[in-house]
Every structure is written in C-alpha cells, then in structure tokens.
Amino acid sequence: MNATNAELFARAQAAIPGGVNSPVRAFRSVGGTPRFLVSAKGAYVTDAEGRDYVDLVAGWGPAILGHADPRVVEAVQDAAARGLSFGSSTPAETELAELVEARVAPVEQLRLVSTGTEATMSAIRLARGFTGRDLLVKFAGHYHGHSDGLLAEAGSGLATFALPGSAGVPADIAALTLVVPYNDLDALAAVFAEHGDRIAAVIVEAAAANMGVVPPAPGFNRALVELAHANGALVISDEVLTGFRVSASGWWGREARHEASAYTPDLMTFGKVIGGGMPVAALGGRAEIMQRLAPLGPVYQAGTLSGNPVAVAAGIATLRGADAEVYAKLDAAAETISEATSAALAAEGVAHRVQRAGNLFSFVFGEALATAEVRDYATVLRQESWRYAPFFHAMLDQGVSLPPSVFEAWFVTAAHDDAAIARIVDALPAAARAAAAA
Length: 438
Ligand code: PMP
What we know:
The chain is of the alpha/beta class. The chain has two domains: 5-64 and 323-437, Aspartate Aminotransferase, domain 1 (Alpha-Beta Complex), CATH 3.90.1150; 70-321, Aspartate Aminotransferase, domain 2, CATH 3.40.640.10. The chain contains 16 helices and 13 strands. The strands form three sheets. A seven-stranded mixed β-sheet has the order 4-10-9-8-7-5-6, with helices on both faces. β8, α9 (250-256) and β9 (267-270) form a beta-alpha-beta unit. α3 (91-103) runs parallel beside α11 (309-321), α12 (324-347) runs parallel beside α16 and α15 packs across α16 (418-437). It is globular, with a radius of gyration of 21 Å. The mean pLDDT is 97. The site of 4'-deoxy-4'-aminopyridoxal-5'-phosphate (PMP) has 16 residues, from α4.
C-alpha cells in the first residue's frame, strides 16, 4: 500500500520545518492536508494516493506548455546525458540569452541565476552600484523573493500568513526599503520629493500577481519610469511571474503595443517560464548597466549552478515551444475558466470581482470589493478571504487543484484542453455553494 498524503505529511513535518520547503505549500491558510505529488502530465498532477487533479498551479507558473511536455523532457534528458553541471560556459547559455533579448527589447544583456530571489537581489545590488545610492522603493503587496530588503509588506506567503515582514531582517536593512501603495503615483512622487537623491531604484511587479492579481492602472508603469528617471533612479521591472507567460514578451510586451503605455525599464528580472520548471532565473537590461557586473565591473554576482546546462535546456525548449498558438490557448483557457468561475459564484450570490492581468487571474470576495476597481494591497486585504478555503477544498475534493491561498494567481497551461476545463466547470457549482455558506 502506498503511504497516504496524511502519512507523508506527518513524516515530512518531523524531517522538514512545517513539512514543506516553501511556506504556501503547507495549506496553512486553507487548512487540511497538502497533497504529496508524485507525477504531472499536461494539465494534470497525480498525488501519492493515485488521485489526479486538474492543476491550476502549474508549478507556480513555469509550466505554460503543460507539465512534462515531451519537447522539454527530451531536451532535459539529452542535456543530462551530456553532463549535469560544468561550472564553465556553455553554448546554450548564450542561446537562452539571445532568445530573451530577441523578445524583450529593453534587455540588451542578460545574466542567468537560479532563482527569482537571486535575480531581484542581484538587480538591486546592481542598481545601487550603478547609481551610488542606497534606498529602494517597493510597492505594498508586491513580492520579489525572500531577500532581506524585500520582505516589507510583501505579497505571496507573507500575505497568506498576514506577516508584515520577517524576523531576522536587521532594522538597518529594512530601513533602506521604502514601501508605497501600488498604483498610487502621488505617493510615489511624495517619496521622491522627500528622498529623491538617495533612491537607487524602484522595484515593481510589471503586473502584480502575488496579492492575487492586481493589474497596473493604464499608464502606471510608464509614469513610474518617467518619475524615477526624472529623479535619477532606475526602474527594476520584475517579470519573474509575468515574463513569457502573459505574452511572448511578457507584460512589457503587452504595454509596448500602445504608445500611451509603452515603457522601458532599466533592469528586468525573470524566472519561472524562463526555466521551464527547472531552476533558471535572470536579470537583464541596458548593456551600460549590466556591464557593471563582475567580471567587467565592480558589482559582484556569481553562482556555482548559474546557467546550469540541464536547467538551461529546459528553458530553451520551453521558450521555443511557446509560440503564438500557445499564448492563444493560455488566453482562451483563462477567459473560459475565469468567466465560468465568476458565473458560478454569481449564481450562488457570492459577491466577488474577477481580477485579471492577461491570462493571469484571481478573485476577490465581498460586496465592498465587487463594484469598484481593486488597485492596491489595502483593498485586497479588506476582502472576505474566509470564503476561499471552503471553495478551494470543494474544488480539491472534485479533482481540481487551485493555489492554496486567495492571495495567489491561478495559472493555466496550453494543455488545459476541453476535458480539463470541463472538469473545472463541473466542479464550480458545489464550490460556489461552499463559498456562499462560509
Ligand atoms: N518575483 C516575483 C514577481 C515572483 O512572483 C517570485 C516568486 N513567486 C519571485 C520574484 C521569487 O522567485 P523565486 O521563488 O524563484 O525565488
């Protein structure tokens, strides 16, 4: 007999803090036993008890082609057979950099790292080294990984667990981060008016998706870049989550299509899709800035596993596979699933609002939020978040795996075909009833 999820969780909790290697996986905000997964294919994941689920987590974003896409698996197997890690340059690293640079014009040069946390941490060091300034501006509810300076009023797990920041961050380091409400240009201008000549950079999720989805107001990114540049500060646009998911050229590419919203960040960060499910992330941007990195410049940054050949192979195969048809499928699946969910909630009288940024979406609950635009973290926190846990569990019981927190985006893949979507749609009425009864 295979071990049950509950048995595996008990054993994991003895060996690993909280039984997990990343907090949101623990189901703390939705309750119950996390599923221990043993395999994934296409739109489905399978747990240790042999149950399968239509997956709307997609590894938290990377699996745009669907899990274990044959092209990606084959690329990984071929690379692995040629050696797991060389600690030396490989032709494939340049190929991945060129693929990104061809898609995202502000990226003239790219440096590969292994996690999104490393990418943003390194981008901030680079911005500080380039400008000779210390302060960093971030937005409330935005998540940029878990480095010391970035945990103040952050989204993702910190939103899920209602944490204002993290223990263990020295006050002197936290004091270098100024937090501003999202989509509030007046507040940003006020911070620049007060500290302008000390601000090295503004870091921003290109479209916020770690407090649930909260898109930028039209023109916000553009105005933010103008304001920062007028004050001699850089802009780091974090596309770890949106990059190569919401379009072939990420959120940047969606806004670049229109003169009124087009913007050019100085630095950008990527992760998730760029590694196709393997540990690849990157920072990139203007060559003049990027060339301040070691070995050319004085800003140090390095990594034993950076540009790992097996991981890079997965990233290249994923980006190559992500053609126009894939993005059309992602958009269509997001449209169908978000509309069906909204209709099911409405049918049960659950006041809610669909939050969308391209093919990323989530829901906020409550009468107060249903009627007006949701543009910032303070508003997101006012929702009836308790309605999510029963909704989540009703879906899980019917074989649909949602993100285990109301403060996370739902992720579709190009493998979400009619059968997968039908299972989701069939599960919605019971889940909406559970949300209504909460
Ligand atoms: N930035 C953003 C926008 C993210 O969504 C995340 C992770 N969800 C990160 C940075 C951190 O990436 P990682 O978990 O790979 O460290």
